Amino acid sequence: MHTLRFVRRARNLGFSLDEIRGLLSLWHDRARASADVKALTLRHVTDLEQRIAELAAMRDTLRQLAEACSGDARPDCPILADMAQTGSGLEVEEVETGTGPGSVGVVPACHGYGEDSTAAS
């Protein structure tokens, strides 16, 4: 029962299943160094901060697009036009994150709405 609570708490904190396996291993290892637990936790915090930044960039892009849309009965829609353009809006790229050996993450590449749309054509 304690293990289930431990796993549930770790999932609620956003740890991946692999990270939870590592945490469980550390939890059961009475000779563990707390530095190992702290390092794993701080890596997770860094990952969370990156995801928060990505989500904030997406939110900001969507707000810009929504503000540019008249939202009336006309068929023209800057939101759909932006999504159809290559190199506009919010693109996500895979890059080395540096959060661990060989770790790869996604990083938003923001391009402002209203950029010259002919450049991407």
Automatic annotation (TrEMBL):
GO terms for molecular function: DNA binding. It holds the Pfam family MerR-DNA-bind. It comes from the Bacteria. Residues 94-121 are annotated as: Disordered. GO terms for biological process: regulation of DNA-templated transcription. Residues 1-26 form the HTH merR-type domain. Keywords: Transcription, Transcription regulation. This is MerR family transcriptional regulator.
